[in-house]
């Protein structure tokens, strides 16, 4: 069995924003692993990823701030130090409740980031 090699990535290898330190991603296939990691950060209250779905499980680690998560038909508030499990094929989104910055580390159980954006039923019903 061939084992993967240890790797160290610098911020420049994954970051996508010059000022928000924890914003970017690394896909597992580039490292020879089955996990993709996204780093999300926003200071905008009400800001966050829009309604979408993945064909694999996702784990959200709330590292800073507070968020309102919608996973399927369930809504719940989360804060720094909590984890959220998002099952495969269940649409979800979250928004920054503020005050201040929201930072999450999102673990995608896939070697690639696969996301399908969907019409938001809350916006359509509004």
Automatic annotation (TrEMBL):
Per UniProt, residues of the Cupin type-2 domain are 44-107
Name of the featured protein: Cupin domain-containing protein
Record InterPro entries: Cupin_2, RmlC-like_jellyroll, RmlC_Cupin_sf
Question: A single Pfam family, by name?
Answer: Cupin_2
Out of the domains of life, which is the source? Bacteria
